[in-house]
Structure formats: structure tokens, C-alpha cells
Amino acid sequence: MVRRFDGGTPAWVCVGTLLSLYFNSITVRGAALKQEAALESGATVLNHSMSLVQRMENLLVMGNGSDVVLHVHTVNTDEVKVIQAHALVLSLQSDVFEELLLNRNNSTVVLTEKPECAAVFDKFVRYLYCGDISVRLEQAIPLHKLASKYHVWGLQQGLTQYMTQHLSSDSPTGHAVGWYNYALQIGDAALRDSCLQYLAWNISSVLQSGEWGSITEDLLLSLLQRSDLILQSELELYEALETWISQNQPVSLTVESALRAIRYGMIPPHHLFRLQKQSLLMFKYYESIRDLLYLAFQFHSTSPIQLAKYFDVNCSIFTPRNYLSSSWGSSWVINNPTRDDRSFSFQTQLGPSSHDSSKRVTWNALFSPRWIPLSARSTYTEVGVLQPTRTEGGRPRVIVTPATSSPDFAGVTFQKTVIVMARQQGKVVVRHIYNFHQSTEEAGDFLVDADLQRRSSEYLIDSSLYLHIVIKPLYHTLLVARK
User: Fold this and answer.
1) What is the DSSP letter of 379?
2) What gap in Å lies between CA 207 and CA 239, rounded to an integer?
3) Residue 117 to residues 60, 71, 191: CA-CA distances in angstroms?
4) What is the pLDDT of residue 479?
5) Residue 249, helix vs strand vs coil
């Protein structure tokens, strides 16, 4: 007796139809594998793979030859989606589906999904047939969950890449924090690190968004420990922390840990005095951070070189983050960055200590679009003449040096940081940061993938390169006083 599904169609007809499609796809794949050889021999390759995809989509939509019915139940509701499908296609795309279909007793397979996953299940099944999918921001996590659950690894990887590339996209409540929490939950290290880096490099915009209040305690403490946060000042971070604590009302231990992660030495003393007078949070937890405030005021009252004789200055309270205020650096817009060298000068405060508040350092910055790396440079030509250092084959480089030397530099090294901005999804965000002592050649990978010759380069904004140079004084302990 012939088994029949879907209105009386014989099962062997269903299988035969699918096998025909399957072998057609093999033929198309075989043609693709032979493409190089065909092109070398001068032959013409005919590619009809798109028509095959269209047939597969029509097969799903019309339900022709269906030999399995998916009943997708939504958790805690009576809603059920019914999808006419084909066992061969599902099995080829997912080993989870293959096992489910092998163990079924009839043509119906019952699945149970959470509401957000059930809502996009038909979109997910269409991907199994057609290999493409349209994704909106709010659909990324549900689709990623389905791809992970049913072992559709290509889709899972594609969604991870999509989320990484759309962290800056606008949404009413934000999504970078939610995606970070999801990546942490499922153990996706690549997505987790991308989200964390985006949040750190664009923390100023995050502080002003609705996402800031939704940050978990663990994520908050993780961000506060980082020296690569890019923001206007440490005071901006303290005030944002006040807001977060007011909204979330965490336990005292979390508040104390967060307050101790603030770098009070980077806040000018007149602001510290104001916080002691006006901040209810600081008043309530003053005893928990009194030692840090005392150390910060000592730092501001004497020269760093004197402080370094008695205190360990290689700790976070004396380590600047990437501050964008004019005391710490300058923005630099380079028009036509593929042409000749560009240079400019700017001034910064000698250090964050108020002892140095009146002292300024003038810096000279040079941008060279085609500098030959030392590793690829020959010192002398055959006739003993020094080889030119710039050619069309070089790559970009920034050099930052002080205009003059000073005894005040003793015990201090200056780390330079170049922040590269880019426009993503219509928003200007930080694309990359590079740390170096004198030249970005020390970093080794400065703008190595930028392709500045291409006007559509993601590193360019209106054909210009947007940089911000930050000067970070780092102090060194000179000697340890006897106790």
C-alpha cells in the first residue's frame, strides 16, 4: 500500500521530486567547481543557481510534495504555526532535524518554541530552503537561538557577524547590552568581546542612552576596570555611575566596588571638593573610598616625581583612560589622506595632577600616507645612498613628538593613542584605537586594512580621515621609601 501525504500525493513521488531537486543542486555545485577550469579553457559558464533557489522557495510556499508537517507551538499560549516541509531538505541542513525525522511515528513533527523564536520560525525554515534571510535588529537573537538549537552553523556564524557589524544601529532601547548578555549566556566569545569593545570605545554615547540603566552589575564592574574607555572625563563616568546606582539600587558591596573603580586622581580637586559637598552617594559611602580620596588629594598637591618616591604610582588611580577633553589631546581631520604628508601642533597639560595644571606641552604630529615599515625598508642602495622612506607602496603612519624637552618629563612616559572614527549605520563611532610611544609604526597594524584609496572605505567620513590624538602620561615609581 502506498503511503500518501498532503492531499493524496504518493510518498515516493515526494521523495522523487526532492531527489531530483537535490541532484540538480549537485549539478549546479559541480558546475561551480569546474568554473575555474572552464574559464581557463575559454569556455562559458552558465549559472542558473538563482532559478533553483526560486524553485526551492516555491516548493516551500506551495507545499508541493510535502512529506512532513511542522507544528510549531508557542510556549504558554495556544498559538500553533503549521508549516508544510520536506524531510530531505530539513535533514540536509540540520542534523537535529535529521534525528527528529528518523524517530517520528507519522508525518507530523511537534516543536515547542519561545514566543520570540516562534515568531520567526517560518523565516528560519525559509533559510533552510533558500540560503538567504532578511534580518531586523530585534530578530537577531531569536534567529541565532534557532540556528544554535538546530545546528545550522552557517546561519549562526552569519548572525554573529551581522550583530557585530550592527552594534551602532539605532534602536529605541539599544541592543549592544542585550547582545552582550546573550553572548555571555550562550558562550559566544567573539560576539561577547565585540560588544564589550564597542561599549568601552563608545561609552560616552552609551552613558546618555537608555541602555546605560540596563547594564548588569557584572558588566558595569567590567567596564569600570578598563583603561581603554573613551569618554570626556572621569567626572562624566562618576556622574553616570550615580545615575546607574539610583536606577538599579544594587547591594552595598556592588556600590563600594564600583566607587572604588573610579579614578579619583584623574578628577581635578575643585570637582572632588564639590562631590564631597553635593554628592549624596559619596556622602553615604565616604568611609569606603576615603583612602582613595586622600591619595587623590596628595597626588594633586605635589609633583608626580615627588609622589613616586613614596607611593606606588603604577596603579589604576594614577592611570588615565582615553579622555577626549582638550587638556588631553586634540581631534584631527585629514582631508585627502592618500596624498602628501600632513602635520599639525597641539598642546596638552603636562599631567592630570593640579601641581602641573599650569604647565603645557606642545606636540607635533605628522601623518604620512605612504610610509615604508622598517621591516620592509633597505637601509642603503647599491651605491650606498640612503633609500627614500616614502613610496606609493607604503602604508599610513602617525608620528607624535614633543616640540621641546623638559626636566618635568622625569619619571613620566607619554603613551599616545590615536582614535580612528568611522560612520556605521549613519552614526559616527570609534572604529579602532592604536597605542604607541612615538609612532604608530610601533603598533604594526595601523590602518593596515583601511584601503584609504577607496572613497567608500569604512574608515573615511566624507572622504576624510577623522582622528583624535590622546596623550596619556604614565608615572613610574622611582624608589620605595623605607617604612
Assistant:
1) S
2) 10
3) 19, 14, 20
4) 47
5) coil
Dump the DSSP string for 16-67. Answer: HHHHHHHHHHHHHHHHHHTHHHHHHTTPPPP--HHHHHHHHHHHHHH-TT--
- Max distance between CA atoms of the chain, in angstroms, equals 99
What single letter denotes the amino acid at residue 66?
Answer: S
- CA triple 91-96-99, angle to 5 deg: 70
| Residue 293 buriedness (CB in 10 A; 0-12 / 13-18 / 19+) | middle
Q: Which domains does the chain have, with CATH numbers?
A: 4-165 (3.30.710.10), 176-301 (1.25.40.420), 322-376+387-475 (2.60.210)
Total H helices, total E strands in the chain:
19, 14
Name the DSSP letter for residue 127: H
CB-facing half-sphere around the CA of 78: CA atoms within 13 A: 0
- pLDDT on residue 393: 58
Q: What pLDDT shows up at residue 223?
A: 97
Expressed in percent and rounded to 5, the helix, strand and coil fractions of the chain are 45, 20, 35
β-strand partners of 64: none
Pairing status of strand 230-231 against strand 322-323: parallel
How far is Cα 266 from Cα 296, in angstroms, rounded to an integer? 8
Strands 412-424 and 427-436: antiparallel
pLDDT given at position 82: 94
What are the CA-CA distances from residue 234 to residues 118, 278, 352, 472 (Å)? 45, 17, 11, 14
Give the integer Cα–Cα distance in Å for 16 and 346: 75
**Residue 328 in 3-state DSSP?**
coil
Q: What is the SS3 assignment for 288?
A: helix
pLDDT the model gives residue 57 = 82
Cβ neighbours around 295 below 10 Å, total: 17
Weakly modelled stretches of the chain, pLDDT under 70? 1-41, 172-173, 372-393, 477-483
Q: Are strands 68-74 and 9-10 parallel, antiparallel or unpaired?
A: unpaired
Beta bridge partners, 344, equal 365
Give the span between the Cα atoms of 241 and 234, in whole angstroms: 11
Element (H, E) at 90: helix 87-93
Q: Cβ(45)–Cβ(39) under 8 Å?
A: yes
Q: Are strands 395-402 and 427-436 parallel, antiparallel or unpaired?
A: unpaired
Specify which residues 386 forms β-bridges with: 380
pLDDT of residue 406: 79
